Amino acid sequence: IGLLFANYIIKKEGFDVQVELSVRGDQWLCLATKTLVPLLEELNRRSEYFTILAESQGGIYDGWGTGIEG
User: Which of the two residues, 70 and 21, has the higher pLDDT score?
Assistant: First the structure.
């Protein structure tokens, strides 16, 4: 239930979401992507938001990754 709820909430925030089983097969990975300008204040706010969301659903938020669009 926690993963489905998190998926729903993250999609409401405008992110594309992919959910898949971890490599070890005992946990789930929820990957959220969105194109945005990476402003530090916004990234910090979203990191705090995702940490709270993950922990409230029994998960762990492990941080940001980025790609470069050109």
Answer: 21
pTM of the predicted protein model: 0.80
CA 17 to chain centre: 8
Amino acid identity, position 70: G
> How many residues in the chain?
70
Is residue 28 within a helix (H) or strand (E), and if so which, with residue range? strand 28-33
Residue in 30, 6, 10 with CA at minimum distance from that of residue 20:
30
Instruction: List the structure tokens of 14.
Output: 């405008």
Q: How many CB atoms lie within 10 A of CB 7?
A: 18
List 5's β-bridge partners, or say none. Answer: none
How big is the CA angle at 12 (ends 56 and 2), to the nearest 5 degrees?
Answer: 30
Long-range pairs, 36-45, Cβ under 8 A, ≥24 = 38/66
